[in-house]
Design brief:
Helix content: 55-70%
Number of strands: 12
Radius of gyration: 31 Å
Number of helices: 15
Distance between the termini: 31 Å
Amino acid sequence: MIKWIKIALRNILKNKRRSFVTLLAIAMGFAAVSLFGGYTDNTYKGLRNSAVRGEGLGHLTIYKEGWLEKGKIDPDKYMFSQEELQRISDLAEEDEDVILATPRLYISGLVSNGRTSTIFLANGVIPRDEKTIRGAWASFRPVKGEGLDEKKSYGVEMGEDLAKHLDLKPGGYGVIMATTLDGQMNALDIEVAGVYDTGSDATNDKYIRVPFTFAQSLYDTEKADRVVVLLDSWNNTEAARKRLLGKLSENGLNCEIKTWNELSLFYSKVKGMFDMIFMFIFSIVFIIVIMSVVNTMGMAVLERTREIGTLRALGLKRRGVSLLFAIEGAMLGFLGTILGIVLNVIVWAVIRVAHPTYIPPGISTAVPLIVNLVPQSMLTLTVFLILLSLIAAIMPARRAARQNVVDALGHV
């Protein structure tokens, strides 16, 4: 086999210019797919953290059965009681993959500074649990001010654009108004304990975070509409959902569980878009690699017709001729991917040093352009391009092997 490889390498080096163009086409294709794959990997990771940590969705959200369909019509009927909340939290936290299970109450209404009023959307959260869920994300989008605190039940965190609209800063006061579950109007005083950037233009002028007890007081209830579950890894999401559904059902609790990616519509839409772009780029690279290898091997067959005839006259069988050209195609793929890896690492290093930033659509602040190195993806792409180059070389290889020995020897 070593001898075959040496012969194939010499044949590749016979026409350096054409071989270099083919190698460059494969390398550029590899680098383009790999770099975009690294960019999408980082984007998916960022969107996942944004949904789980930034939006506070956790990995799983538990609802009472029927809430998603009828909860808006009759919310009190499809909310969890204090006893149910305790049982759900206890059962969830028994699972080895669960870090935290915390109740939530979603509220909405009007917020006013005494002069101007506007609508708001808010999550009632337990402050210490919210800090656990946000984790490292809190340092990425920090809260300006003291933030939520169990000791200050009327302190709230407000989206930056909403705070600007109401001319409220940390330490400022306002009023929140909403209808209770019984349909009565209720109003509570608030203190802006912190201002934060939600990360989205669509929510930065509407979102507020309030203590869980404050949300209950505003709606005049002791219930919650959901329980958010945080896992030790997003990879365990589906397995944990199945286990929790079974455990809750066994204990007489009829619930529905949604995963973070099912609840985050932004993640699903962006992922679908990037998957489509990735397949488009991959298809272009696929065609370029096939055409380049077929062209190179086809020209090699044409130029080496007499050489092939000589080899056949010396006793080399058709299978040997096909094998020789197939090895050349595989070597072109291998050398091209090696060059592609080098190009990929160079571009990755330049991006790491330059730290470019951009503002994506719908995002309120600039984000860094980061491309991850994904070894597993690069290895898969390497194997695929080598096999693709080998397969692309089979057609001219078979044509070369079928040539008549006498005609090949007399070819000019």
